Structures
1.
Amino acid sequence: MGIQRRLVGSYLLVTCITVLILEIFLLVSVKYYYDHNVERFLMNQGELSASFFQQYFADEDVEKQSERLLKGFAHNSDAQVQILTASGNLLQDSTGLQSTKLLIQFQDVLTASQGVVGRWKGTEPVTQEPILAVSFPLIAKDKTVGIVRFVTSLTETNRTVNQISMILIVAGMIVIVMVTSLSVFLSRTITKSIKDLKRAADRMNEGDFSVRAHIRYRDELGSLAETLNMMASKVVQNEKLKNEFISSVSHELRTPLTSIKGWVITLKSNGGENKPLLLEGLDIMESESERLTDMVDELLDFSKLDNGRITLQLGPIHVSEFLHQIGKQLAPRAARQGVKFEIEAEETLPVIQADSNRLKQVMLNLIDNALKFTDPYERILIQASSVQGGVVISVQDTGSGIGEEDLENVRNKFYKVDKHAPGSGLGLSISEQIVKLHHGELRITSQIGVGTTVQIFLPSNLTIS
Amino acid sequence: MLNRFIRQGIMFTGLLMIGGCGVPSMPADLIKPPLTGESMQHDKTTQELFSLLPVEAQVQSPIQGKQGNDISYGDMDGDGVNEAVVVYEEPGTKGKMLKAAVFKQHNEEWRIISEMKGFGYGLEYAGFPDLNHDGRSELVLSWSLGAAGNGMDIYEWSDNALKLLSKQEYHGKLEFE
């Protein structure tokens, strides 16, 4: 069942229950109001007549003055008024009919003949008309000498009550119809957003990520649509990155291969005779193969890190010693590029637990990046200092710096600031993964034209389960 | 959603207005004469007497007698100061009730000294005729039951209280000798 049908259905249910409760209450009230008031009117009339008789007319015989009494009792009453003897024989009837019926069979007359006010509601035996009758005893000197009886037909009352009931029921139905049509309209504001979302999600499922969900209102569904749209644009962006990566890696792999193939052809044609050429060729082929191997290793590393299949070989590391070792390794390259390369590390740094090979990989990568973007006569500074709970190693250069927009993406895999620069774009991403495996943190701050600082925090008491 | 609350609110308020507490009055019970400028400008004594009656009281004019003559005066105790009687109708638990209030003046101040229950459809006569010619007036209240006849109550003043002398029926017009 669709959401709209469910919504309208529940609106309808609530409305129906509300209207039903109100209707029942109103119908009962109306019925009570009419019945009670008709009865009260007869009772008043009866009480007034009976008490006046008791006060002033009690001396004379009821039968003798019955005609006169009837005129008084029926003075302002539209009901049928009857005067009876104490035993229930009819003396006078305001309708003028001389009934021979035994009135004592009626419950109210029977009660009144015993000196108590009687009331009876039922069906007239002959005409089958619903009637209400009240009988009052006429008392003279503490003795019941007669009965005055007021009888009214309830046909009109019932008809009026039915008429009002019909009006109420029709009004209730109109209300239900109005509320239902309104609820159809209202539920559309919700279902429209959901339908839009579903259509967009379906299209995305089919592979069309250019579609965007329409945001109608700033509500939960609106933010859901926004999230969906954002997801779609990320998928598109990732797709683009993947394609760029494949083309750049292919290019990277191809360059050493081309070089090797070129030398193989050269050596094949005339390498046999020329010993120095052969040696030079083999040297180049060796270094090119190493480049290839490095690159493939990097890719493998990345794939392992991404799948979480890498494990650290932890061991104690003296940070200062460790950094100076790396410095020695890279000093010749820095000297060749004319870049000042300095290491500042306190001897008192704590010993940390880390995988030395992996950490070395991180440091080489960071310093390699710094060397790539730093011009001659500029400076690269490696610093290490002790902080609460661990050690911070920073690599600071006064190179070209990174723009704000690129800074956000630079850690992402495959991302390269310059798309045509050599490299896979994986270096920084791998470094960050390794630092994270050490439960550490990698932070980059940079400003164009001023330089870049990369800080690595490594905790001193690392235990990996 | 909103429209349902509004609808319920209107119905509930309507019910309260119609229903109130207890059973609402019959339309026939609600018919009352409006206030007139004349009735507002009663003299001081009338205002004083009426202010002593219950709030919902409706003063009844006798059928016999002059129109607007709601208050009758007469000296019942023979002290030279007139007493007064006012008949009124009061809504009770079982419909309307007829009542008569007798006022006496003490040091320029009126007070109700007695209240009597009335019968029938309405007041026929209320007054202070001297029936036994002893120099002191008796109180006569006459109630009507339409064509069936009337009932007359006669009270006299004795031992500092109203005493019922007789209760009798009569037909036609009341005549005093």
2.
Amino acid sequence: MSSPKQMPPEYYQQLEEIQMVDFAIVELNLYLDTHPDDYEAIKQFNSLTYESRKLKKNFEKQFGPLMHFGRSYSQYPWQWDDQPWPWQV
Amino acid sequence: MWYYEKKLQYPVKVRQCNPRLAKYLIEQYGGADGELSAALRYLNQRYTIPGKVIGLLNDIGTEEFAHLEMIATMIYKLTKDATPEQLEEAGIAPHYVNHEKSLFYHNSAGNPWTAAYIQSKGDPIADIYEDIAAEEKARATYQWIINLSDDPDLNDSLRFLREREIVHSQRFREAAQLLIEERDKKIIF
Amino acid sequence: MSNTYTKYYYPYISPFDPCKPIIRKSYPTPPQMYLGFQPPNLPQFEIKEALYRGTLWPALYSKYDKKDYRGEYDE
Ligand SMILES: [Fe+2]
């Protein structure tokens, strides 16, 4: 049996874009945990969250679900357990 | 509950097959000031801390699991295709005889992870200051690993993790400030 | 306001120290020691750059370079 096929460059590139946006979201989230009244930061948090959803929808169409337990849709056959996992790529 | 997302928080790249570095990195996997300790410490303390800092403990604790996964990825990649001879040369034959190449929660010297590494006093000030100290100790550990590592790609990821400890420390310092303030932040006249 | 993020000290050197002495030792004192409660609207890195800096805010960014064998940090 041969090993699962390698991911194309677009996989890495789109994943990196998601990592960038999601990282800024994590940073703002922790900041807002101690600065709950910063209106501008909440606005930025919400707009990046919107951006992240868009990027992930597009990514998942090509490379399968990013999340389990009903947070992402699956095509047939069941895609969630497809390799590679994050530590393998 | 938690959801898993099929991505790392930060892209982890390893340039050379160098199992010796795995021996050092395991300190941040199952060591006293490692990512497992951090995650379990904060997520456990959150139940009995005042409401205004629960969210922060919850969220930093969650981020620590993403860091644990990054460390695991580094160790996995550094050892994946190494021969037993290479592992022996790198000084991790003692790990190999017990665990083959599987990961395990122990530190760089082989001591298994223990709950004695972490604390929860139920005193909010004691707990938050423990957390600040934990972040500074984790930052220091990353510094010493970077000093020993000559893999530029790996060092890039380790610098990211070191910087995260700085931001976490900053937030915990702010939490300490919130805890000593007279007014509950929700009551604003 | 300008803080330095490295501090130096000079350990005692005995004529009987076996290794070549490190005359000046240093340790990092990164920005979280000085920032206080983070003020709102601090300048930010570009979203793309923030990931590779490990923080969204230059005020919290701390560079770390490998120590050389003499135990010194770059300033
Ligand atoms: Fe941390």
3.
Amino acid sequence: MATTTGVNSDLAKERNNSTFDVEELSNFIYRGPEKVKRRRYLHNLATKDPFFRKFKPWAFQTREEQYEICLQKHLYINKKCKELNLTEPVDKFFYTEAAAPHENSPIGLHTVMFIPTIEKQGTEEQKKRWLPLAESLKMIGTYAQTEMGHGTFIRGLETTATYDPRTREFILNSPTITSMKYWPGNLGKTTNHCLVMAQLYTQGKNCGIHMFMVQIRDLETHMPLAGIEVGDIGPKFGYGTNDNGFLRLSNVRIPRENMLMRYSKVLEDGTYVKPPNAKIAYGSMVLVRAAIVTDAARALAQACVISIRYSAVRRQTEVSPGGEEAQIIDYQTQQYRLFPLLATSYAMYFAGRFMYDFYLKTTAEIEGGNLDSMPQLHAISAGLKAFSSWMCSAGVETCRLCCGGHGYSHASGLPKIYIDVVPGCTYEGENNVMMLQVARFLMKMYGKLQNGEALPTFMQYMSTDLNKKSCMTEEVALNCLVMAYEHRAARMIRDAAASMEKLVQSGKSPVEAWNGSTVMLTWAAIAHCHAFVTKLFVETVVKSRMDSKVQSALTSLCKLYAVHGIVENLGGFIQDQFFDSKQVKILQKKLMQLLAEIRPNAVAFVDAFDYPDEVLQSCLGRYDGQVYQALYDYAKSSPMNEKEVLDSYYKYIKPAQNGKYQQYSKL
Amino acid sequence: MEASSEVNSDLARERSRATFDKENLINFLYGGPAAVRKKRYLENIIKQDPVLQRGRRWAFQSREERADTGVWKHLYVDKLQADLGVTDVKEREYLRDAAAAHEGYVLGLHFGMIIPTIKNQASEEQQKKWLPMAESMRMIATYAQTELGHGTFIRGLETTATYDPKTEEFILNTPTLSAIKYWPGGLGKTVNHCVLMAQLFTEGVSRGIHMFMVQVRDLDSHLPLPGIEIGDIGPKFGFEEMDNGYLKIDNVRIPRENMLMKYSKVLKDGTYQQPPSDKLAYGSMVLLRCSITASVAKCLAEACVISIRYSAVRRQTEISPGGEEAQILDYQTQQYHLFPLLATSFAMQFAGNFIDDFYREKYPDIAKGRFDFLPQLHAMSAGLKAFSAWTCSAGVETCRQCCGGHGYSHASGLPKIYVDCTPACTYEGENMVLMLQVARFLMKEYSKLMNGQPLSSVVQFLKCDLTMKSCMAEEVALKCLVLAYQHRVTRLVADAANCIQDIIGEGKSQQEAWNSCTVRLFWAARAFCHAFVVENFVNTVSEKHLDEKTREVLTSLCRLYGVHGIITNLGEFIQDDFFNSEQIQILSHTLTVLLREIRPNAVALVDAYDFPDTVLQSCLGRFDGQVYQALYDYAKSSPLNEKEVLDSYYKYIKPAQMPNKELFSRL
Ligand SMILES: Cc1cc2nc3c(=O)[nH]c(=O)nc-3n(C[C@H](O)[C@H](O)[C@H](O)COP(=O)(O)OP(=O)(O)OC[C@H]3O[C@@H](n4cnc5c(N)ncnc54)[C@H](O)[C@@H]3O)c2cc1C
Ligand SMILES: Cc1cc2nc3c(=O)[nH]c(=O)nc-3n(C[C@H](O)[C@H](O)[C@H](O)COP(=O)(O)OP(=O)(O)OC[C@H]3O[C@@H](n4cnc5c(N)ncnc54)[C@H](O)[C@@H]3O)c2cc1C
């Protein structure tokens, strides 16, 4: 961190005004002083390494350079992690976060998806054959699932793998244009192998989707093999460093042993052997979804750091004529847009932490053969993934807009955070589709409730009496807030069920009734997730052990999260008169009070996330607040300024000034 | 348009199912059959122009290439406009859009802002001197207002112009870091002049902000003049072709005659003459603001065309096992996201027409010094700008997400539309700041109401009785929708006014009271804009001569706009029990009924925008629906695919596969 001597005086003042010790809050966020120290140590290892400092900023690179530079960095990171013996995923994560911030790895799927999938789905023999090759990067792989025509509906994938018992090979094909693989990360230029998801045909029968190891490029020349057409899918909103690719297979033959056969098998004669349990192959997807919750929280946290620090430094508009201009963070409207997002970033961070713990616990049970918690794990991970990615990515954009014009420059770092986080709404399960899966779970639970069956703990709120009114009073107690969210979710679940019921009674099929109610079902699912996150936030601040000043500050933030959510979605809370009009007034007033209450701690709250400047990469979010000098430096180093006069001046403008346009005949 | 034989069959079926003749709607939107013919004629010229076929699509170009391409394309369009003798503003726009819809025009501000400013703010003599130079592009200028430290608060600009009576010159300076001009479009590399906004000092007294014509680059060599440091501000979220620039001025002297002196003047001896009214300098700002509503509406319209056509072509998920996959447009959730946005695009289009007409009608009076309508013009232009920019840019992102993974690729065209659209939330008045100006207008009108004075025409409804309940019944009459919106504004205006009164009652100053209520003031202002847009939509579909079938369809859209706005902001409508619970049921039921009602006409409605493919530049939004072939072609032509094996493979990957070679020590 920068030394305090150079710190902008407004920012320094903010830091003196906070009511709690920032270090204590960092300790709470990152689970103890030891972990905070470790995180800093890893960040420092990366930020102090001259290797990472020698490249120009990503915004000044062409896409080709972005790919190439990022590739170098990640290969170096791989090597360093080995040297430093960093094996724990969190350790690797913190090191990488500081070494190549905001740079999606061109070889990331190799470690995140390819190797774990071999480990989980491969037979012992396959693991022995492939893992050493993969570890040494001789084999570089990815996971090729999405096709041009199918992303959501996996069963609809069209790539085929047809078993030929004579040669004991599978013949792989992309039989239609829509069947070509499209989107898999790192597929375009980097990998020489991929795990292809394809429809298995054997003995003339379709046996559904299975996974096949396919070599796509030569191990020496890296040229595509016969029958393989492979390449990059072209420029995107973001992810410039990632060569998301396309792949067309025509009559590519692979040995029988290249089907991943830990669970299902094809025998030499072509006999298909089903997996013992269809759901067993499921774990890694849940893990990735859990990771998205924390990714989304982290993106919003970083955006909050940038926009809140900048709002403390930025002064705009005299409050009284001739007087000083106010820090924009003192405007209520600015607080109203930013502080609830600050609260959201904490809420989502805690949700991500919960999700990860829950995943570990449940997968241990599943490995042990107990599948009871599986539907819950699925519903919670799908719901939190969708809810957090929607909320956080929209929140990042709001943070950007709150920085005025400078927010729009890549100098702010904010556009990049947005384009990195927003695909979280789409990949690993499109959000609307995820919410409908949550809704399906909720409807099942509702059915159980109707039948008097037992509900899992986190669904027990559904049995509350919907005629009961809110206990909300002037003090705005946390438990009344939680009850309000649970009431709303329970009511919406009931309403959605009633809507389906009504449609069925009017003669519609269950499918039609479902599709005729998906808007209401989505509302119910969102309300459910919102209640879940709120309750989790409340429990976290109430039940955890932490410094009392931190606790009281976090309690305000938690309250703000809950109160703001009610005020912004008021209709859902009052359409059945759950709150009376006096209670509504109390909540609206409380919202404004909480903004004022949080105001002195705003900078401390973002400082506590403890992101070094090297990670934020933002002229506006700098720890020292020297934003204008940084913006000026950024401008001066723009590649467009390398030439004082651009060629286009001579080529086009000058002739046009003389009314001469003949250059167009030469173009 | 493409021959229908090649049109995707789903899309063709959609078109044949429409209940109205889309040509009628096209004529309505573009001002009659003759105007539509002219539009298509001009678009065809562009489509067939061989010069414009050259060059790669923008997404495949580096920023430097894009800046270069932008210059020649736009200059070429200027030439075409001149050659074809096209003078009508709209017709000029058809040509420019068809040729370079998504490429920023570095001379746009020169023609769109500077020439009008010279006409409005310069003396006769100055006009005689500058206009011919500006029109022949000998002088190329931009408007240099925003500084590093100030965008919103113009009076706080720090650039100084100090009059020196000895030499009869102004001495210009950017005395601080934060005084550096930052953001003006075209300033970095393109212009040789700028109209500089600076604090005038004469006779030792500060006279406020005035405009000065300053030459920044040599007219022949194009090199910066002494005392001028100038350049591009670096890469941004979008606007890549634009060289938004920075400018540092160090003791630059300009003759006295270079201050724009139509209204205020500095005489030779340094005497300052005030303008007759400080409102006169205001016109061109409002003009630009008025044009924003229509332009963001167009962004949303384009996004709707793309996402709705794609949703008709895209099929995903079997509805019943083994059955056909559904067009995603048939999912209620998809309709719920897209159709209200389609309605919004029309609503904003019509609001844009309104504000444009209003300006044209009232501005002549204002220019003559009659200011009766100025407060309304100001409030309406500010409010509609902010409301439309927020709504439309968020809408574009929703459209993008509704296209799943492919929406994230630049092949979809959607990310580009978004980055072009979203800065409208910031420039020409930051949205929140504008909303608070609307709120100020509303508070003034409210106090008139309290004092029994007559109200401005746009807020007559504030007189309505707040105890009255809604007239909403099963048929959901448009009139009852309008009344609901007006009721909501009236209540929120009263709430905000009470908030201020209460706080003043507690002994706070007017200023403190205002800032403690700005969130409520914002709510009131937002509701006001919403109500206006609804009413204007209703008026447009009710009054204008339309054939019955088209009117029916537009009326459904209009009703959807009204109903959806109520449902998604329900709390504000029912907090005082304006609707009873039965009415709420009616409204939420009507919402789903309307989605179904609009479904068969969705594609015809977007077709009616009549955007040629050259404007949309989208693989997903093509008229012929051949989206997959287009995505494949896009991928194949990705610049990363020019080499089958990238150099980085040999340089970095291969050595990394050989663990013993020390790759990185050599780097
Ligand atoms: C940056 C990025 C990286 C990616 N990386 C990979 C990768 O490494 N590997 C890989 O295999 N894939 C990857 N993908 C692809 C991604 O997994 C898919 O895009 C994603 O699964 C969504 O599927 P889709 O594109 O088919 O969306 P679609 O399903 O076509 O969604 C389009 C719309 O239809 C709606 N819809 C679809 N089905 C239903 C339904 N049943 N009910 C209601 N509504 C429905 C959706 O809500 C959405 O609004 C990546 C995508 C992106 C953007
Ligand atoms: C793409 C682009 C092109 C541009 N082109 C030009 C150009 O050609 N020429 C030019 O001169 N400028 C240009 N600008 C700059 C633009 O005009 C300013 O960014 C804009 O006026 C907003 O001002 P700001 O950046 O100072 O925002 P700020 O005022 O700093 O806003 C930051 C935050 O503070 C809040 N805030 C500020 N004041 C108040 C207040 N009084 N009350 C409550 N809240 C407040 C805002 O709501 C916002 O959330 C451009 C900007 C962009 C993004």
4.
Amino acid sequence: MNHGQTQPATVKERSHIALNNEFLRKAVKFTTERLRNGKKKASEEHGNWEEWRERGKQIRLHTIAHLDYYLNQFVENARANGVHVHFAADGKEAVELSMKIAASKQAKSVVKSKSMVSEELHINHALEEMGIEAVETDLGEYIIQLAGETPSHIIIPAIHKNRYQIAELLSKEAGETLPADTSILAGFVRRKLREKFLEAEIGMTGCNFAIAETGSMVLFENEGNARMVSTVPKTQITLMGMERIIPTFADLEVMATLLPRSATGQKLTVYMSAITGPKRTVDGDGPEEMHIIIVDNGRSLQLGDPEFQELLNCIRCGACLNACPVYRHIGGHAYGGTYSGPIGAVLTPALQSNVAEWDDIANASSLCGACYEACPVKIPLHDMLVYLRNRKVEKGYGQTAEKIGMKGFAAIMSNSKRMRSVVKLGQIGQKLVVRQGLIKTKIGPLKGWNSVRYLPSLPNESFRERWDSLVQEVKNENSPMSEDIRTRMEQALKQRENGGRSHG
Amino acid sequence: MKVSLFITCLSDAIYPRVGEAMVRLLARYGVQVEFPKQQTCCGQPAFNSGYWDEARESARTLLAAFDDSDFVISPSGSCTGMIQHYYPKLFEKDPVMLEKSKRLQAKTYEFTQFLVQVLGVTDVGAVFPHKVTYHPSCHGSRLLGIKDEPMTLMQNVKGMELIPLPFAEDCCGFGGTFAVKMSEISAAMVSEKAQHVLETEAEVLVGLDMGCMMNISGNLMYQGKPVRVMHLAELLYEGVKLA
Amino acid sequence: MAEQELTLLEQLEKESRAKQAKFIGGIAAKLGRQEIAKKPVHPFRGAPDFWTQLEWSQEERIERFMDNWQSVGGHAFHFATMEEAKQFIAERALELEAKHIIRQNQPELNELGLEEALPEVDIQVWNHNPAENWKAHAAGADIGLVVVDHAIAYTGTITVLSSQDKGRSVSLLPTVMMAIIPVERLKTRMGEVMTHFDGARREDLPAGIHFITGPSRSSDIENDLTIGVHGPGIVYALIVG
């Protein structure tokens, strides 16, 4: 989705475009498989993965349940470290704060490391309007910035670009033709961005975690660009989602165990940096001035909402994207928001609190639960998708045809006799369309289904019609129940009375 | 002890042979299955689409139908999952129905769960001399954790070659109303799933959820591929007759 | 600092403090509290209990660290003495035709005598003269040499802390990084390192704590692994002792 180009309004239309882009589908499949297998291998090798997930979940649940305390503690400690802490209720405020700081530094250039929050704010655009160059320095982010696009994956932003497209983009920047060779392309970016790091007055980062007890902010990365951004320029501005808090360094060990393994299958990212305030007076490097802008931008809407508070537990690893069979086929841009995949399908409408506009991406899920299974902090995204759909209906935004359909469903299914008559009607009515036991017609609601499938016809007798004769036939076949089975069944009943059966 | 069959609307109307196989198979262990006729549908199509009032109307028929049952067994992990995971949510504001939901939740089992966990049956004595591949449906395996039960039952079928399905855990793209609402995405998913089934060169695809089976077999038939698609209960019962 | 900058900072500071009560009070309200929560009991602090029991022998720590460091593309060696490590560094520096080396101003390195072993090479000692541009020195160096503060065998990670004498740039800007790991600083788990930071007074923490696990890398172009994108692409871990 290029700037200035309007993207289609619905996920259906956007996914149609994606589904017809063979390269994109192949690239997304390849990458998500690689990451998914990496995660599987890393979590198996580490062992006790369920215990670690549970621990990660508990730490996040606890922190968010006491976010007022921990965030306040973080703020006080960060200030004591010499950080200028700011609060932004929404994206606009965060951008304004950043601009004020940039203007006072008379900055001409800002180097940025990967930050999903900054994507939420569209801050590059704002900086450019002020005449300040904003340079993304993560290799993938740099590539899509040159292409004028947005990331299509949390972890691998340029998942949708091939090396030829990348060579073309970088050649334009280099002023010479670069071959489509990964190491040459990366080498060019290294040299080019080295200059940018050294020139820039301001380094802008995101924040993976913020440690309440020490006021430290933590960055995970593989390239070293986040270290550059937080070491070389004189001023550092960190954009931090208000929910990024964890209580202690000990808790960071748990996050550091879960995040890299879930994201890429690494035991740890190449760099994990905990930055505690600006450079000390005697230090030879590090930013002289450090700002942390704590951003709400819809996050607090989830607090106190029993169905969605757990969304704030997300550690942005992207594992749900890699596990998702829908993402696998349509890629990130089809979701239409900053965040894609299952987390995006829930987070985008939740943060913006405009269910009506964004509800359609909540429909782009078969509710298979792969996201929940992949999530290192066990966020029940598949349930949240249903809750979103429900809220849309409750607020009266349901589509008329669907509403009528569902009223019909309720009318039929609330009464078994009515259901039986409808099935009977179907058995008779289908005679018009059944050929060799199959329904192949592509009319009405069958259009989508039958474009790649046939529908089986209804047998002459439904189960409930068959039952009376079946029960007679089976009576003669019945074996006597063994003592063992009887005992087992009785035990199951007894266990249940004692509340003994656990579910799933 | 009263064991009741929750047939599910799909098996009732389209795949009655699945219910029949369950009933006949269980009869061999002396388990007499009953069929309360006021049951209709678990309500999942409406629930998943966000229409919870409509889902409740449907769910009430099950709560009434199985009120005095000791065990409720169903040929679908998905419909069982609906009862197990979402009925208490659906009726959270209605104490009477909530209590009923919790009771139904405690006594409802997916077919292989009942066979293996409750009855302790791991080998039904079936013979099935075919190449078979198994698609573990998402709701059964993820929501209910049904992973070992079907595997144990299948491994004990004599003469059967069980071929692992590549990307077995990936959703087939059915998802109830999803297949209609997001038909293009669903089509991409089912086409890939069918492709993986064909790669195994299996003669039979077996599963525990007829929704998924209808979806995959619909695509296989569309492609003109002669893969037989069955519920595990059917396979086991057919195997028992062969033995 | 210019006048206008100071005024802005003061103004922003005022605004921030004014807004804090509302911002955090709003969170408390959403969580159903009238006031900000008191310090809660944190029952799930850190790693699960079974994990904190894990402790490897020194031999195993060395082996596992080296395996891990190598598996991500780093070079790892084990030496009995600092003298052997020095020989190795000098040999590699000559092999790599290094012209500029930058090293931390650490006692172990001051005593190493690398300057004598490599008389032809320009070896800079980080920040020994604060007037110079040390970031530029580091950016121009072929090799950055550090002694690590901690190392973690389980993940193959070194930890370096910043100070007046220890630049963050030294492990970041040169093409090659060499890290000496005194064996007694090599721990089994990350948690053993974290206790140092949780145990320290906040004001004693350094500005930069960096965990480094191998050479800089990216897979952003068609999943093709590229080494040395921004940070050092060649990294040596030299365990001594």
